[in-house]
Each structure stands twice: as structure tokens, then as C-alpha cells.
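We include this case.
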Amino acid sequence: MNVLPLNSPSRKLCISVLAFSILYPLTLKLAVAAGECDKSFPDHISEVQCINQLNKKLDEELNQAYQAALAKRPEKDAWDSRKEREQLRKSQRAWLKLKEENCTLIGGLQGGNNLWVSEFIAQCVQEETIARTKFLRRIANDAFGG
């Protein structure tokens, strides 16, 4: 069996194609889910409730991706502690705080009354959660190559 050298362009291309084929359907699923609340609703409250319900589903997917990424990281790395599970845990905790504070700011800047602020916060949370889920899935699929 022929094995490509680790740093060969062909091997990197194969890994990129494999990662794309794994991640694309997942990305598409998230994008479709994010558009579920674009339809018309009888009132604004119903739309915000839809976005919040969708965010709960997206949060479940985020948690699954996080657990998968965590499982891929070594508990200890003799050469680089930044690759360890604890670093991913720290990163996730920091991201959760950043998402909360940043989306609150964005909601406040874009909103008018409380309901609009709530909608903008929920939309921001949705976008950030989708992006983070994609990132965690890349970790889980060893798409960083390191």
C-alpha cells in the first residue's frame, strides 16, 4: 500500500476534500435550520419564540460537536499543552462568555424596543452558535492537521 508523505500537497488535498465531504452536509443542515424562522408569523412575539426554539436545537448540536471535539483532544500532550482537552475547555468557556456579551451589545445597538432587542440578540446567538459548531466539528474531524 502506498502512503503519501505527511507534508505532500497531494495528501493535504486529499485531507481537505475528505473534510469538505464530511463538513458540507453538516453545514447545509445548520443553514437550513437557521432559515426555519424566516417565514411569516402572525406577530413578532411568535417569530422571536421560533428563533429561541431553534437556538435550543442549535445549542444541542453545538454540545454534540463540543463533546466530539473534546474526545479528539488528548488529556495530556507531552510536547504542547495548548493541544490538550483543558485548552479546549478554556476556549469554550471564554467563547460562551464572549457570545453572551457580544450578542447583548449587538442587540442593544440594533434594537429599539425590548422585543426587537430580544430578536437581534437571538439572531446573533444563532449566527455565533452555527459558526462555533462548524469550528468544533473541524476539530472533531482533525481538519487542522496539527
